[in-house]
Amino acid sequence: MPSPALNLVIPMAGRGSRFREAGYQTFKPFLEIDGRPMIQHVLERFPPDVRRFVVTSRELLSPAEIARLEQELNCELIFIAPHREGPAYSLAAAAEQLPLDESFFIAYCDISWRWDFEQVRAGLDHDGVIYTHQGFHPHLIANNFSAFCLPRADAPALLDTIREKASFTDDWMSEPISIGAFFIRDGHAMIAASRQLIAADSRVNGEFFPSLIFNQLTDMGGQVLLQSVPYFIHWGVPEQLQDYLRWKRIVNEPPSPTGDRGPQNILTMAGLGKRMREVSEQPKAMIPIHGLPMYRYCADRFPAAAPTLITVPGIARQLNAANRREKQIVLPRQTSSQFDTLLQAAPLLCGQRDFFLSSCDAFGLFDPQHFQATVARQRPDAVIFTFRSSLTQRKMATHHTHVNVENDRVVAVHVKSKRSEDDPGLAGFFWIRNGDIFHRLGQVPLWGEGEMVADNAFAHFVAEGLNVMAYELDEYVHLGTPEEFMEFRYWLDHRGVFATP
Question: Within 10 A of 381 (CB to CB), how many other CB atoms are there?
Answer without folding.
Answer: 15
